[in-house]
Task: inverse folding
């Protein structure tokens, strides 16, 4: 770690933000295979929370890969780094008083546990979207499973 950097403590605390928002902040982490419904559920839950007056934001796998993690591939090492970045972003959102909803395949338990460890106990809620591989392949609007089975995509969760 660089010793030339110092963490600057905010004069507005997380508790201040939660008080203003009239709700606690936390991470709701949707995980599961591609096509299991993670994004659909995260966005629907966000819509309902927002309608109830909550401050929310969805961090979605495809959207993050367009920006924050655009330089990463799908190797195990890059997947780990992707989840680390998302975890740090989600932690910042929680500090900002926001309910952060995430939708990521996040296939490695150790990576999810690492993110869980960034937050106080009980503020990382993991939701496993349990859909069979057959169902996920039928829902595959992007054709990624077909490409993975043909060998055109390497390191595809559920296939290789």
Result:
């Amino acid at each position: 770690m660089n010793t030339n950097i110092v963490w600057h403590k905010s004069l507005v605390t997380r508790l201040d933000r939660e008080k203003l928002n009239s709700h606690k902040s936390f991470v709701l982490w949707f995980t599961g295979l591609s096509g299991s419904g993670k994004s659909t559920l995260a966005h629907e839950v966000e819509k309902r929370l927002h309608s109830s007056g909550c401050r929310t934001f969805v961090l979605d796998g495809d959207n993050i890969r367009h920006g924050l993690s655009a330089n990463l591939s799908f190797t195990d090492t890059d997947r780990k780094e992707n989840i680390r970045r998302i975890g740090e972003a989600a932690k910042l959102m929680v500090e900002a008083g926001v309910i952060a909803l995430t939708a990521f395949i996040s296939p490695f338990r150790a990576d999810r546990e690492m993110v869980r460890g960034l937050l106080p106990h009980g503020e990382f809620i993991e939701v496993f979207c349990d859909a069979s591989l057959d169902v996920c392949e039928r829902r595959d609007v992007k054709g990624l499973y077909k490409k993975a089975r043909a060998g055109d995509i390497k390191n595809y969760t559920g296939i290789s």
